[in-house]
Design goal:
Layout (H helix, E strand, L loop, with lengths): L12 H9 L2 E3 L7 E3 L12 H12 L4 H11 L8
Antiparallel strand pairs: 1-2
Helix pairs in contact: 1-2
Bound molecules: zinc ion.
């Protein structure tokens, strides 16, 4: 994972790897429905179940706003008060 370099980082690598691997793709037959590229699970608001738990774990590590920004960029959605 070249995008994650050596700077101090409180987020577990396994979580990041999950976030890297589990990405949505648009199905040809689903009329815009998304599926996970990695586990082929249906893609919900916060991704597949595996990614969702990774995001939850990651959120537990958020202690600062700057980290929150990093997370938002990494995960690809904003917190925005969503459940
Ligand atoms: Zn997945």
């Amino acid at each position: 994972m070249a995008s994650f370099s050596v700077r101090y980082d409180p987020v577990p690598a396994s979580v990041k790897i999950d976030l890297e691997l589990h990405r949505p793709y648009r199905t040809w037959f689903g009329f815009g429905r998304l599926r996970c590229e990695w586990c082929n699970h249906k893609w919900g608001a916060h991704g597949c179940p595996r990614r969702r738990s990774a995001v939850k774990l990651l959120a537990a590590h958020i202690k600062s706003d700057s980290l929150r920004d990093v997370l938002a960029a990494l995960v690809g959605f904003s917190w925005g008060g969503a459940a």
